[in-house]
């Protein structure tokens, strides 16, 4: 008799790893998104070039390749990361590159008119960004950030390829041990969907909160 | 471990073999995504609530769960109900349907972005709904969609390595197979990265061109 | 005396909780030129859009040219109109919008010929001939091959007028056709409309904030406020001797803002 | 990557080993505990060496040696059979688990496949094997073209593909095939074992080339274990033969196929 | 006689191949109220934007309050101004935009207090006190806690005026501040501006299409065409007896479109 409750709790442990990866990866992605997104709008050529290179590189190569590099090639350069660190790093940098474009787009979408009003009021660049542009850009970013976070969640399935015991990996283990395919895979599909659902519900909540004042400003 | 150029030249033909499959899978997947996506977009606008809701939920589900797991499902579980697809076909359908949920959103946004005034002008000109779609709405909705669709095309390309999980001998799988039999990861994986990067950089240029060519027409 | 070409009978229009038109009734005689004025949000646009069947109604009846607009006879019963009925009724009505709503992907000529070719089965040659006449009338014949993006606002609006005329409707609706234009461009559109009003016996309903133009153009002026007709009469009466206080206040404000009456 | 020193391992209190997701070489209990013949042996020996624990991570066959070289594991104990190329890439201990190769095929073996050569000769026969595994190599060496050697990610997938008719034969070591068949309980499949002409292979614990000292220490304890008879007690419940492992040596195995 | 507070000297402004201002020179005296009128695209907005340093210039010099605007002294040389110099110069100038450009995420009061607090180091209490005075002056004190989305266009523009005044600039620029408003709302904004013009000795430059207002407001009117001043003079002269043909045509069109002069 197969001890399903035991195997299901194995899968739940995998869910925990997936959750960790998603949360930590998102945090890293968020930081990178703002660094690179705002960097790309910088006045300084060097900063712009750096940000652009990062963005194009990580959007250009596949997440799989990035994972393999971080996991198998970086150690030869003297950096050995745990699988979790490698996963967070690869996922965070990858999704961060996409989210950086969201930051840039949202900041630009706020419109020249707001920038000009700031100039007329003699605000400095920093003050303009901090008090006027970002507060308006943030709500614009949220829906896409939500998509990015879900992409990242789904991306964690890929880390099973570097032996990180996440949901998908645990499902594979359970499958090998029990010989049953349907149950572990159906379980993780539901778990993934539940997590994605939680992400979008909380993002929508956040968005509603942030745009409460902006009702009717944007259509 | 040192970089070995001889090894690089030796494995290049095999990698190119895989690259061909990668391209084939991407192109076929894109075709599936384009067609199914349109079907989803139209079904989601259906006045019958049951249809639009169901399609909405299924799309959300597909979009909220990893492609990798979906591929396992298609490849290993579907045969139980008598649907046995070849690895490439399963991969093309998996990746195509997954991305159809994304292209459906592009179609929807493109259609909704046509100002309401255009619908009204079409009505005031006494066109039928069909005529309005064909002569007024779609000609305006489609060009702005093209860059976004192309973007997903590139994203699909970068996700083809997942097909290795269902035994499609694409670029990544060939590289892994080379790595496995020679115990050298650096050269094959780096080359895969270079392949992806080169294609991506070329497509970024192509995308810019598309964006310029199909920039929104302003009234 | 001829019977009205438009009979608006006790129309109610709600948007959610908001009642925008509340039991409105208007009769319009064939060939009459009617100006609708009144403060923002009073429902002027809404009544035009209802006539163009761009909205649905919440209550009441409308008869256009002897036929029900939103209802149709099914045996002895009057049932809500289906799309076919609406399609047939729309032949009688044309509309020009505040923001032109030209088709941006088509040249001026194609904007004008599209509907006649698709809905009236006119050949391309005939449609183009008629379109060129109309474009000539609005002074846009030389721009027939331009796309809307290359035109000024006033030019766009003149094309939009030609486009609406191309279907030869019995009734034309104009919703603030100059208010999105630069002041300098207003005159070219108004002069086209004045000529149109003088030369045809089309029935015309016009919403405008240009009191001077309303004065010159209209046979009758309706002053709207909050979905009701507060005052109506000949332009001279309304503009020189408004009886209602609401009308007086409105006109005073408009005049103070520099508009000539 | 730097060499792993036994002293260091003792100090940190654990050794990192790579294992496969392939019963009976490795098994993961419902409680998540790793057992199976290979890790059990490794655990005992490392304990005797003074390393209290082994931390096992499940890995693809193909990723094991690169992972070892990249310093991600201190040893591989996964049923990774000794082969000349592998002996060049890593430092093996003396043999631990020996097994012959087997085929899983459809009931009645419709294509009459009993050796890798048979597969090469039948233009319609497709073989499934783990990527980077011994079976893949054997098939390729026997002349099966690349496009008829399907790389299968794991045993369950292999059986499933066989059931679905995607492959005609699935090849793994005898004990692994038996384990899979037991779980599958499919009357339409049968086992061909051993494969004709395929040698018996033995695995050993694999260490980095520069970790020969650690390997030698491991060998000493392994020898004691074998001589005391505990070795047999450890692996025979899983179906492996202690005699087979004790009747051959690393040198023979590494030279075998040459 | 006092020296000009603004000296625009032979300014050239190009956008790519297009020369928008071509050797324009204007002197404005302290306290003067200047109205800029002229057809669309003639460069009126551009000159205001240049004064607000929202554009760069392609040639010429501007002196504001005795100092170079786009240049600064470095030893004996005149070099292009850096951000610090611009920052200092902008203190002297405020601007009100056609589309208000309020900060939609901040309430009315915060819109007015933001800049004084950030750029002049005023405490919140002081900033709010002054803001309430200004909002009171424009009749918006009771809406201090509303967000822009809850205001009508006229109300938004009055807040925008208060916001610009909060920095106490010596010079105020107004770019078609009523042309995005519903006609009924125009008057409330114009009356605020008339009071402002009467009560302060601020220098004001105003671009408008409201000829009646320009007439009442301005000490001097400049008529622009194609980046050049075609005619200038007292409002009575320009509006009653324009000498140039271009001016006559322009005014005739505006009048025909129903605007009172
Ligand atoms: N689609 C809609 N949904 C909700 N409310 C609407 C809608 N369309 C119009 N309204 C409301 O109906 C009322 C009347 O609008 P309408 O556009 O008819 O006014 P109007 O007289 O044309 O005003 P204006 O002079 O500003 O054009 C307004 O309060 C408006 O907010
Ligand atoms: N950023 C820009 N890039 C290119 N051309 C511009 C730009 N801004 C203005 N122009 C051009 O400069 C010319 C003058 O524009 P400006 O806005 O100053 O005119 P204006 O007199 O304010 O007209 P209006 O009455 O329509 O506001 C126009 O031809 C305009 O198209
Ligand atoms: Mg209206
Ligand atoms: Mg302007």
From TrEMBL, chain A:
Compartment(s) where it occurs, according to its Swiss-Prot or TrEMBL record: Cell inner membrane; Cell membrane
Superkingdom field: Bacteria
Keywords: Amino-acid transport, Cell membrane, Membrane, Transmembrane, Transmembrane helix, Transport
Signal peptide: none
Membrane-spanning parts: 6-36, 57-79, 182-203
Chief place of localization: membrane
CDD domains: TM_PBP2
All residue ranges annotated as the ABC transmembrane type-1 domain in the record: 15-200
GO biological process: amino acid transport
GO molecular function: transmembrane transporter activity
GO CC annotations on file: ATP-binding cassette (ABC) transporter complex
InterPro entries recorded: AA_ABC_transptr_permease_3TM, ArtM/GltK/GlnP/TcyL/YhdX-like, Ectoine_EhuC, MetI-like, MetI-like_sf
Entry membrane topology: Multi-pass membrane protein
Family: Belongs to the binding-protein-dependent transport system permease family. HisMQ subfamily.
Name assigned to this protein: Ectoine ABC transporter membrane protein /hydroxyectoine ABC transporter membrane protein
TrEMBL record, chain B:
Keywords, ordered alphabetically: Amino-acid transport, Cell membrane, Membrane, Transmembrane, Transmembrane helix, Transport
Gene Ontology biological-process entries: amino acid transport
Cellular localisation: Cell inner membrane; Cell membrane
CDD domains: TM_PBP2
Gene Ontology cellular component annotations, sorted alphabetically: ATP-binding cassette (ABC) transporter complex
Domain of life: Bacteria
PROSITE patterns, per database record: ABC_TM1
InterPro entries the record matches: AA_ABC_transptr_permease_3TM, ArtM/GltK/GlnP/TcyL/YhdX-like, Ectoine_EhuD, MetI-like, MetI-like_sf
Transmembrane segments: 20-43, 55-78, 189-210
Gene Ontology MF: a single term: transmembrane transporter activity
Limits of the ABC transmembrane type-1 domain: 19-207
Keyword Cell membrane carried by entry: yes
Principal localisation: membrane
Family: Belongs to the binding-protein-dependent transport system permease family. HisMQ subfamily.
NCBIfam families referenced in this protein's UniProt entry, alphabetically: ectoine_ehuD, HEQRo_perm_3TM
The protein's name in its UniProt record: Ectoine ABC transporter membrane protein /hydroxyectoine ABC transporter membrane protein /amino acid ABC transporter membrane protein 2, PAAT family
Organism encoding this protein: Xaviernesmea oryzae
Automatic annotation (TrEMBL), chains C, E:
Source taxon at top rank: Bacteria
GO function term, MF aspect, one: ABC-type amino acid transporter activity
Subcellular location: Cell membrane
Keyword Transmembrane helix: no
GO cellular component terms given for this protein: plasma membrane
InterPro entries: AAA+_ATPase, ABC_ATPase_HisP-typ, ABC_transporter-like_ATP-bd, ABC_transporter-like_CS, Ectoine_EhuA, MetN_ABC_transporter-like, P-loop_NTPase
Positions of the ABC transporter domain: 6-251
The entry's keywords: Amino-acid transport, ATP-binding, Cell membrane, Membrane, Nucleotide-binding, Transport
Its membrane topology: Peripheral membrane protein
Similarity comment text for this entry: Belongs to the ABC transporter superfamily.
Protein name: Ectoine ABC transporter ATP-binding protein /hydroxyectoine ABC transporter ATP-binding protein
Organism the protein comes from: Xaviernesmea oryzae
């Amino acid at each position: 008799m197969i001890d399903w409750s035991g195997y299901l709790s194995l899968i739940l442990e995998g869910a925990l790893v997936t959750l960790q990866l998603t949360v930590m990866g998102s945090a890293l992605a968020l930081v990178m998104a703002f660094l690179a997104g705002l960097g790309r709008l910088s006045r300084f050529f060097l900063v712009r070039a750096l940000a652009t290179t990062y963005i194009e590189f990580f959007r250009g190569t596949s997440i799989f390749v990035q994972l393999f590099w971080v996991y198998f090639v970086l150690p030869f350069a003297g950096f050995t990361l745990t699988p979790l660190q490698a996963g967070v790093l690869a996922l965070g940098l990858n999704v961060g590159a996409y989210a950086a474009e969201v930051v840039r787009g949202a900041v630009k979408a706020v419109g020249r008119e707001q920038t000009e009003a700031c100039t007329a009021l003699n605000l400095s660049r920093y003050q303009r960004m901090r008090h006027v542009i970002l507060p308006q850009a943030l709500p614009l970013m949220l829906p896409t950030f939500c998509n990015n976070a879900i992409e990242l969640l789904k991306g964690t399935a890929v880390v099973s390829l570097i032996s990180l015991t996440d949901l998908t990996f645990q499902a594979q283990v359970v499958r090998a041990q029990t010989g049953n395919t349907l149950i572990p895979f159906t379980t993780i599909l539901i778990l993934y969907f539940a997590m994605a659902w939680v992400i979008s519900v909380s993002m929508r909540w956040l968005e509603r909160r942030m745009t409460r004042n902006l009702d009717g400003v944007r259509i | 471990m040192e970089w070995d150029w001889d090894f690089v030249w030796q494995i290049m033909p095999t990698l190119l073999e895989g690259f061909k499959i990668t391209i084939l899978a991407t192109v076929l997947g894109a075709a599936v995504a384009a067609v199914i996506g349109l079907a989803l977009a139209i079904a989601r606008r259906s006045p019958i609530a049951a249809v639009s809701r169901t399609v909405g939920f299924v799309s959300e589900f597909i979009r909220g769960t990893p492609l990798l797991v979906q591929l396992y499902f298609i490849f290993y579980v579907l045969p139980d109900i008598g649907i046995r697809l070849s690895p490439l076909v399963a991969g093309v359908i998996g990746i195509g349907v997954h991305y159809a949920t994304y292209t459906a959103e592009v179609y929807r946004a493109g259609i909704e972005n046509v100002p309401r005034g255009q619908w009204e002008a079409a009505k005031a000109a006494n066109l039928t709904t069909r005529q309005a779609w064909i002569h007024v709405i779609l000609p305006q909705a489609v060009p702005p969609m093209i860059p976004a669709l192309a973007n997903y095309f590139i994203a699909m390309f970068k996700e083809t390595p997942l097909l290795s999980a269902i035994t499609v001998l694409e670029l990544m799988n060939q590289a892994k197979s080379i790595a496995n039999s020679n115990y050298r990861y650096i050269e094959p994986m780096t080359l895969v990265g270079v392949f992806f990067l080169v294609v991506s950089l070329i497509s970024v240029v192509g995308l810019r061109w598309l964006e310029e060519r199909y920039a929104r027409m302003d009234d | 005396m001829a019977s009205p070409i438009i009979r608006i009978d006790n129309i109610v229009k709600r948007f959610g909780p908001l009642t925008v038109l509340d039991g409105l009734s208007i009769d319009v005689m064939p060939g009459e030129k009617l100006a609708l004025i009144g403060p923002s949000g009073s429902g002027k646009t809404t009544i035009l859009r209802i006539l163009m069947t761009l909205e649905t109604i919440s209550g009441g009846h409308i008869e256009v040219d002897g036929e029900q607009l939103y209802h149709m006879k099914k045996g002895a019963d009057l049932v809500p109109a289906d799309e076919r009925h609406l399609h047939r009724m729309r032949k009688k009505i044309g509309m020009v919008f505040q923001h032109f709503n030209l088709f941006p992907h088509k040249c001026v000529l194609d904007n004008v010929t599209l509907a006649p070719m698709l809905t009236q089965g006119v050949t391309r040659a005939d449609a183009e001939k008629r379109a060129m006449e109309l474009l000539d009338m609005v002074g846009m014949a030389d721009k027939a091959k331009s796309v809307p993006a290359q035109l000024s606002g006033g030019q766009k609006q003149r094309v939009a007028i030609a486009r609406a005329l191309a279907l030869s409707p019995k009734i034309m609706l104009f919703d603030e056709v100059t208010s999105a234009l630069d002041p300098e461009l207003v005159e070219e559109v108004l002069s086209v409309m004045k000529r149109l009003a003088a030369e045809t016996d089309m029935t015309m309903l016009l919403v405008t904030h240009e009191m001077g133009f309303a004065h010159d153009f209209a046979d009758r002026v309706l002053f709207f406020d909050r979905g009701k007709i507060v005052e109506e009469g000949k332009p001279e009466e309304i503009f020189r001797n408004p009886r209602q206080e609401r009308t007086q206040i409105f006109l005073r404000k408009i005049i103070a803002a520099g508009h000539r009456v | 990557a730097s060499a792993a020193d036994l002293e260091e391992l003792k100090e940190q209190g654990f050794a990192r080993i790579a294992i496969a997701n392939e019963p009976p070489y490795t098994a993961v209990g419902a409680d998540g505990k790793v057992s199976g013949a290979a890790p059990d042996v490794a655990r005992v020996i490392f304990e005797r060496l003074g390393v209290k624990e082994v931390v096992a991570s499940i890995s693809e066959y193909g990723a094991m040696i690169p992972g070892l070289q990249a310093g991600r594991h201190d040893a591989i104990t996964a049923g990774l059979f000794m082969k000349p190329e592998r002996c060049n890439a890593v430092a093996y201990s003396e043999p631990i688990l020996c097994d012959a190769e087997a085929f899983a095929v459809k009931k009645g073996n419709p294509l009459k496949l009993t050796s890798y050569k048979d597969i090469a000769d039948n233009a319609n026969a497709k073989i499934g094997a783990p990527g980077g595994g011994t079976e893949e190599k054997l098939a390729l060496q026997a002349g099966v073209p690349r496009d008829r050697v399907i790389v299968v990610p794991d045993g369950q997938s292999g059986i499933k593909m066989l059931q679905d008719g995607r492959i005609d034969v699935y090849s793994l070591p005898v004990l692994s095939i038996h384990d899979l068949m037991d779980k599958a309980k499919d009357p339409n499949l049968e086992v061909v074992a051993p494969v004709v002409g395929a040698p018996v292979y033995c695995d050993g614990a694999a260490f980095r080339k520069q970790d020969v000292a650690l390997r030698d220490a491991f060998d000493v304890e392994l020898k004691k274990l074998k001589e005391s008879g505990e070795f047999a007690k450890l692996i025979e419940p899983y179906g492996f033969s202690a005699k087979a492992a004790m009747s051959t040596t690393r040198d023979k195995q590494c030279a075998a196929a040459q």
